[in-house]
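Appendix C: a fully annotated inverse folding record. The material below is reproduced so that readers can follow the format used throughout the book. The structure is listed first as tokens, followed by the designed sequence.
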């Protein structure tokens, strides 16, 4: 019996597994771990959304199979959101499909548009499904540095022109998970021009577009004239309404890409549970004060954490203008050990869990990602713990870790 499965062989060891194992062991021994590791919202969803869910559950008919592409009301709601937020018109019948979270949508888009020997370009570091979705689909991935500046286009052109065969698509994600980088509309204008010239698609992940803190909403690539000729965009209600576990996302844009994803999904699923779709419709169409309050909460957490880490002596703390993360280079005294070992040290000596940057690709080495998913009191406690950790002898900490390994 052959158990040497081709696709499984292509997937690397799970980088976060070691930190998760240590985290579980620490909790089992009574440690109170302050967990910044996963971008898992800790706030309750809007009350009216939960009420709509309860109300809908009472109807016996909603417990039957739903629609793989999503109910019409939800697709119309998402089209309405794009019109209000970005000034972009979408046909809910041909340019919108509901996904089971954006992660499922991205993975099944990879399945839909990949073929043997196909190449895709993905910036590094990146949200893992951006690269591994294509690897699981059996395709090849070309990485370029994830720095959305002029050098990005130099690397992109070189990747396109030197690839063994013309790449099918490029993935972009701004505001970015994990780096928190954001872009102006001019970046997308240049990107659309370049990809139209070379004849490759663009897949944009816009999951964090409502979490911004400088008063300037991040743009959509679909605002660019002609973008729908080559681009599809993924969004989610997970972060905007703290509904990550509800698993509702969207893909919108280019009709051929949306049609391909819709067809693949028709073979694989019956869509998310209907009451969840009804409640998601209420979230998008209903009052939006919740989103502003959520934004203010994350901003306060960001400021407490960033200012606290600077005071604690953490080097080169960058304060992000968007997303729900801080993306930080390792303190100088620990740079030589790498981000995974540093994450273990922080967990052991400060009871603080973070995500090692290398889990997001080789370009993430030397960084950690800190998610703003603990309340401000827990954040202040984490800062105190980290300050004490950074004031200790790093060489002694490192030696103890090496002996324990």
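Designed amino acids, in order:
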């Amino acid at each position: 019996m052959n158990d040497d499965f081709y696709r499984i062989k292509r997937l690397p060891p799970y980088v976060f597994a070691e930190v998760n194992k240590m985290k579980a062991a620490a909790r089992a021994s009574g440690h109170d771990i302050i967990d910044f590791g996963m971008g898992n919202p800790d706030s309750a969803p809007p009350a009216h959304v939960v009420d709509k869910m309860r109300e809908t559950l009472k109807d016996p008919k909603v417990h039957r199979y739903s629609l793989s592409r999503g109910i019409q009301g939800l697709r119309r709601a998402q089209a309405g959101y794009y019109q209000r937020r970005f000034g972009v018109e979408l046909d809910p019948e041909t340019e919108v499909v509901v996904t089971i979270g954006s992660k499922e949508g991205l993975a099944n888009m990879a399945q839909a548009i990949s073929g043997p020997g196909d190449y895709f370009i993905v910036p590094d570091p990146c949200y893992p499904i951006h690269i591994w979705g294509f690897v699981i689909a059996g395709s090849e991935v070309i990485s370029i540095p994830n720095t959305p500046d002029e050098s990005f286009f130099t690397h992109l052109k070189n990747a396109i022109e030197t690839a063994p065969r013309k790449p099918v698509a490029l993935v972009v994600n701004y505001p970015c998970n994990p780096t928190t980088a954001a872009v102006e509309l001019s970046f997308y204008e240049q990107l659309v021009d370049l990809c139209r010239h070379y004849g490759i698609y663009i897949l944009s992940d816009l999951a964090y577009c409502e979490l911004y803190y400088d008063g300037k909403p991040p743009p959509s690539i679909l605002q660019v004239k002609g973008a729908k000729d080559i681009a599809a965009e993924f969004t989610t209600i997970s972060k905007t309404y703290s509904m990550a576990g509800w698993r509702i996302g969207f893909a919108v844009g280019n009709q051929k890409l949306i049609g391909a994803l819709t067809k693949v999904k028709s073979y694989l699923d019956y869509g998310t549970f209907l009451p969840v779709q009804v409640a998601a419709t209420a979230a998008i169409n209903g009052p939006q004060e919740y989103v502003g309050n959520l934004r203010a909460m994350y901003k306060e957490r960001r400021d407490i954490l960033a200012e606290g880490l600077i005071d604690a002596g953490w080097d080169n703390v960058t304060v992000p203008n968007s997303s729900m993360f801080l993306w930080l280079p390792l303190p100088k005294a620990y740079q030589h050990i790498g981000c995974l070992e540093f994450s273990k040290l922080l967990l052991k000596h400060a009871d603080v869990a973070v995500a090692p940057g290398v889990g997001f690709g080789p370009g993430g080495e030397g960084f950690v990602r800190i998610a703003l998913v603990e309340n401000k009191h827990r954040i202040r406690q984490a800062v105190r713990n980290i300050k004490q950790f950074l004031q200790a002898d790093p060489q002694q900490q490192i030696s103890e870790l090496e002996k324990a390994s």
